[in-house]
Specification:
Length: 724
């Protein structure tokens, strides 16, 4: 048979959304290429091209299984689909009858972000029809930014097109490491072009990253979680030297005076000077003042913020402060500037998906979070707990104020034991549950704990549509490339087969292809269904790069910001009205727990951060040799900290705190500042008989706490390191 080339994409929760050209012969994938056309290309990375090894991996789950040994031991026995589905439906009905549907906790996560099969849609719909379920609120990735963007600008659509970077004169990459952690396909390309044009690029990061090394003219190291202090001190310099854009502040913002009073110390007696920020952040006062002057006087300038500095305790303050600075420098709504807001663009969401219905249990939550958990809800409108509290809620239930006692955990497209904080607490919670059901492609650390394990096909074995990570101007149709391997099925097919067993009629309404046609036909940015399938990469070509808030700035009367005041809210009355401690209505620096000044630092003096690796998509690809062999998994540690502990390059070391311990190798490098250590997140958690993680999963160490505005603080954690 001749080779067929199917043009498709990945649908993982990766910052890219790229073109895969899948060569198929006799129903088998022979190789995978990527976009070779005109620039800007949608070029896939090493992970995208390693999909062939992932699809054919010897450890792919191909048959339904039930647990054979102790829970978590990883021993399973093959069963038929009928037995598997009957058991799952039986357990769901039993729990609903005995305890009510809220005792079912649905953890549908981000392993598949495609429009139809992804984003846990099928099961949200199914479980709503079933009678409801408990779930989570708070987006792990960017809840800090989402909070700040919502309350400052009133919207999440606050990003500029990457092409607009060519119009900048200064680009500040605040935590952005586009070379590893993808952040829209083509971001590195756009930055390289800007750099070639002579745009100055500066990088603020505790690590000398690949992006800093290849793109930036200056690297400014900073202690994790102290970014708000530095930004606020930059505001101090601008105010003292009269560098702020007064016209912009008067015309488009409210609350600057309140912020200024705080910055100058009128409120608390502490002027937020560069030396004040130096003592907190480790960044020299002269560098802070220099960056402030440069940002205020080089116009236009783009402050691009990563999500990582916001994934810290009080991370929402970092993002609120960055937005205040973007306003003070008048860089909002102008070409070459940046609002430092959530990076969404006004294109490319398929708002018409299958109807999810309503959770009959209604809104219930444990945390006194006012209106916060009305947003960033992962699965509709039912009872929720904050994502970082998932396992605590399972362990402690109603007794600790959580909405329900969980009896059954249902996991789809997620690896919560690995990816949520405090894995040892998570382990205890998994042992306590009555029933655990997991849909997976691999025997992940979480899947090992399943009682029933259902095999799911991959994105190359079904059809779908994807949009970019941050709604960019294109869509990709993903035609099924090969038949499903073994007995694997899609999550959608499983939902369809469970529905009648749960007594639900007319769940499906349409077949997969009918839904895809329906979604295409209901989107005015897409051609007709058959043309879209024939030409699966559908790029919208806007006449010019998009600049967020250009209309609001050009004509503020006709185009108010979608906030209560119609302006950019440096002071937010809505935040003030929530009366949440440590969630101030103006951007402020709030000292984090487990920062360098926490008394706990005497025992655990190093801050650990964990980043998104080029080898993985979160925990996906951790078991795929083609990518794993490219870089050894190790803990980055500065020579000074290593020397103090007698640690040499490549030594076996222990990283520990009061919550857990991991065994890993040391990578001694000047590329990380003293006092901070780093490990890539996503490696599979492998506790040995003493509970020491041999896999190098940072969540054996992290603390299961939430920030007051909902940020997921995985970069706020203290540890100690020793040889051995
Ligand atoms: N290759 C790849 N790309 C991905 C993903 C992936 O798994 N692999 N995942 C995607 C997903 S789900 C997400 S949410 C995004 C995440 O995107 P980001 O949050 O931007 O990514 P990270 O790699 O966690 O962090 C980026 C940089 O921030 C630095 N950093 C960490 N803490 C701090 C801090 O407190 N202050 C400052 N200034 N810098 C800090 C780190 O050293 C790192 O270099 O990436 C997406 N893109
Ligand atoms: N320490 C630390 N922890 C972190 C982070 C960090 O930076 N540091 N980052 C956080 C962030 S930003 C995120 S987004 C989360 C991610 O957390 P998760 O969403 O839980 O993690 P993934 O690793 O993406 O797990 C997805 C799983 O889905 C499976 N899968 C893929 N496709 C399908 C499918 O179609 N159906 C089914 N049923 N399964 C499928 C994959 O095999 C994989 O095991 O992790 C968070 N955790
Ligand atoms: Mo994420």
């Amino acid at each position: 048979m001749p080779t067929k080339v199917i043009e498709t994409s990945c649908s993982y929760d990766c910052g890219g959304r790229c073109v895969l050209k899948v060569h198929v012969e006799d129903g088998t994938i022979r190789r995978i290429e990527t976009d070779g056309g005109e620039e800007p290309q949608l070029r896939a990375c090493l992970r995208g091209r390693a999909n062939r090894q992932r699809v054919y991996a010897p450890d792919r789950l191909l048959y339904p299984m039930k647990r054979a040994g102790e829970r978590g031991e990883g021993r399973f026995e093959r069963i038929s689909w009928d037995e598997a589905l009957d058991t799952v439906a039986g357990k769901l009905l039993e729990v609903k009858d005995k305890y009510g549907p809220g005792a079912c906790y649905f953890y549908g996560a981000s392993g598949n972000m495609a429009t139809f099969h992804g984003y846990r849609r099928a099961f949200t719909r199914l479980l709503n029809m079933f009678g409801g379920f408990t779930s989570r609120w708070g987006i792990a990735s960017f809840e800090g930014l989402s909070f700040a963007s919502r309350y400052t600008y009133g919207t999440m659509t606050a990003g500029n097109s990457r092409e607009d970077l060519m119009n900048s004169r200064l680009i500040i990459l605040w935590g952005i490491n586009s070379a590893d952690a993808r952040f829209r396909t083509g971001t590195s390309y756009a930055l390289i072009r800007a750099r070639e044009k002579g745009v100055r690029i500066v990088c603020v990061d505790p690590r000398f990253t690949e992006a800093a090394a290849t793109l930036a003219e200056a690297w400014l190291p900073i202690r994790p979680g102290t970014d708000a202090a530095v930004l606020i001190a930059m505001a101090y310099v601008m105010i003292e030297e009269g560098l702020q854009d007064r016209h912009f502040l008067d015309t488009y913002t409210i609350g600057f005076e309140r912020f200024r009073d705080y910055v100058l110390g009128a409120e608390d007696g502490t002027p937020k000077t560069p030396s004040w920020a130096e003592s907190i952040s480790g960044m020299p006062a002269s560098a802070i003042a220099g960056l402030a002057r440069e940002y205020a006087t080089t116009k236009p300038a783009a402050l691009l913020v990563a999500w990582s500095p916001g994934r810290t305790a009080f991370g929402e303050q970092f993002h609120r402060a960055a937005m205040a600075l973007a306003a003070m420098t008048g860089n909002i709504g102008v070409p070459g500037g940046s609002a430092a807001g959530h990076d969404g663009l006004p294109w490319g969401t398929l708002s018409q998906t299958m109807p999810l219905g309503e959770n009959p249990l209604g809104r219930q939550t444990a945390e006194p979070r006012g209106e916060l958990n009305r947003y960033s809800r992962v699965d509709g409108n039912g009872p929720t707990v904050h994502v970082a509290k998932t396992f605590e809620a399972i362990l402690e239930g109603r007794g600790a104020g959580y909405p329900h006692d969980t009896r059954l955990l249902y996991v789809i497209a997620g690896n919560p034991l690995n990816q949520l904080p405090n894995a040892n607490k998570s382990l205890a919670a998994l042992k306590k549950l009555e029933t655990i059901i997991v849909h997976e492609q691999f025997l992940t650390p979480t899947a090992r704990f399943a009682d029933i394990l259902l095999p799911v096909n991959t994105h190359l074995e079904r059809s779908d549509i994807v949009t970019p990570f941050l709604t960019g101007p294109y869509y990709i149709f993903m035609d099924q490339a090969i038949p499903s391997r073994g007995e694997s099925r899609s999550d959608w097919d499983i939902a369809c087969a469970l529905a009648p067993r749960l007594g639900i009629d007319n769940f499906a309404e349409r077949s997969e292809s009918e839904w895809l046609k329906y979604l295409t036909d209901n989107n005015s940015q897409l051609p007709d269904y058959e043309s879209f399938r024939r030409n699966p990469v559908h790029k919208l070509t806007p006449s010019q790069p998009h600049v967020a808030f250009a209309d609001q700035i050009a004509d503020p009367k006709a185009h108010p910001f979608p906030t209560p005041s119609g302006k950019i809210e440096i002071y937010s009355q809505r935040i003030a009205d929530m009366h949440i401690p440590q969630l101030p209505p103006i951007p402020q620096y709030v000292e984090a727990w487990e920062g360098p000044r926490d008394p706990l630092a005497q025992r655990y003096p190093l801050q650990i951060i964990s980043t998104h690796s080029k080898l993985r998509v979160n925990s996906i690809f951790s078991n795929i040799p083609w990518v794993a062999e490219l870089e050894h998994h190790a803990l980055w540690i500065n020579p000074r900290d290593a020397g103090d502990r007698g640690i040499a390059q490549g030594d076996s070391i222990r990283v520990f705190n009061g919550r857990g311990e991991m065994a890993v190798k040391a990578r001694v490098t000047e590329r990380i500042m003293p006092g901070v250590v780093h490990i890539a997140q996503g490696a599979w958690f492998q506790p040995d008989e003493n509970g020491v993680d041999q896999g190098g999963c940072p969540n054996v160490l992290t603390r299961d706490e939430m920030s007051p505005g909902g940020a997921f603080p995985d970069n706020t954690c203290l540890v100690e390191v020793k040889k051995g």
